[in-house]
Give the backbone structure.
Amino acid sequence: MLRLNCGRRVSDGTSMRRFFGRNEKPCDAEPADAAPVAEAWEFCGVRFGAPADWSVETIPDMNGVLLMSPDQECDFPANLWLELNRDPERRPLEQALEEYAARLAGAKLDFVLRSKSCLEHPSGRTMGLVEYTSVQDGIPVTQWEVMLPLSGNGVLFVQASVQSDLFPRYEGLFRAMIRAIEPPASFL
């Protein structure tokens, strides 16, 4: 397994605010003209933004970074997980998505596939997206699993998760956060 320990806050004062459109608010209770304030972070060459009030924790043993909403009003707060990994077989993205969705179906309680597609990421790369619902610890959860192939056999996995009844409040924010990811120029 790949072990990486290189998460850090970008200290050059860069703000990711420009990536969050005015319609990408995380909560319907916010004023219509409010955009989430964000901070720029970097993990092993992957640049990403997080709303200023979200926690960001590098978890080296799992090759990833966990971004967590401060929302304590629910049992399963909104979160985004970024993980760098490899696909030694360098499968076509469509095949990798099929196989991944099948693994999820076998591993997740009450798994319901909502959609599976390949989309253009702003980086110019094609990403795969699996949207599904499942039950975790008795809580209905809606999740997006994103695969963004990198150079060589590298893959950036992104998982966006939230309690299902709160998904409409976070869908736009998740979309904006995923669009704002800047993959590394190379991945060894």
Observations:
- The chain is about 15% helix and 40% strand.
